């Protein structure tokens, strides 16, 4: 939660109540892949949002029990479960935000790109349904490899004549959440005050934390920059290895995705001061049609891509930015080509 200058601002309890009242129970959120590790926990967290009036949970299996379970929480959102392709349209009808968390996660030894073969098809199928049944919705894509699945989604929506670049997001909030946690711990800063923008993409060295732009301003030694950058870039793999075959990050991801859903809903609701980092269509780096940057979220999704953060970055970051370009470009091209080959 940031002020216009990019400095984190903490909402006072009173302001939270006002925000909640302004949009109380107005928004419908659909979560696709809701029976999964990310999906279940995300569904629970979104159920806790006072901005949500309806929560639609879709999966190919095992979602009715999740919906029944979550529906017993005494918060306003009405919960409904939808199982299998025949119920996909119903799950999407009238959605303001559609979150795609469907697909396979990594196991140790795999890269996110190893998931492309399965997840690209799943994302394409789901966004085509979004085009048909929730054409105005914001689409949050969690399914990996995000560097490619977002271009897949954009291209698939284009083919359906339903693409609005302001409304398609790769969820990279977990990179920011991790960067904030690791920097606060390393520098002994109060967690709530720390804000580290993370740009680029969501895989290995394409994840570029801008420690030079971290707030509050803190001096980092070269060694700290290298260690923190590597830790943030490898944090997903750290979890995959710790889970030892049982999947990848689910709980921290759900926390991060819930933060991004809430930010998007506040934007839709007219709060004029909502900024988050996300992987979106962008001209910030001309060679890279998709790039994670801080974006301003408004009534129609992305209101502004804040490119200014790349100005005045450190030499280390500038080198890392140059180095990430070929991999990120190849991942983007792979996603676009995948959809074009299906036609
Ligand atoms: P999971 O296997 O626990 O859950 C995936 C769910 O998707 C399952 O319930 C499955 O039934 C469902 N599914 C599969 N095909 C579907 C389809 N066609 N339609 C609807 N649902 C379908 O996996 P998970 O741990 O929840 O991870 C989900 C995805 O999120 C993975 O691709 C993972 O890599 C990604 N992820 C991304 C981030 C990020 O930062 N963006 C973080 C964590 C996980
Ligand atoms: C993450 O960053 O935790 C996710 O992208 C999941 C993964 O495969 O690492």
TrEMBL record:
GO terms for molecular function: L-malate dehydrogenase (NAD+) activity. It catalyses: (S)-malate + NAD(+) = oxaloacetate + NADH + H(+). Signal peptide: none annotated. Keywords: NAD, Oxidoreductase, Tricarboxylic acid cycle. Coiled coil: none annotated. GO terms for cellular component: mitochondrion. Gene3D superfamilies: Lactate dehydrogenase/glycoside hydrolase, family 4, C-terminal, NAD(P)-binding Rossmann-like Domain. Its EC number is 1.1.1.37. Residues 172-337 form the Lactate/malate dehydrogenase C-terminal domain. One of its GO terms (biological process) is malate metabolic process. Residues 28-170 form the Lactate/malate dehydrogenase N-terminal domain. Pfam families: Ldh_1_C, Ldh_1_N. Homodimer. This is Malate dehydrogenase. It comes from Digitaria exilis.
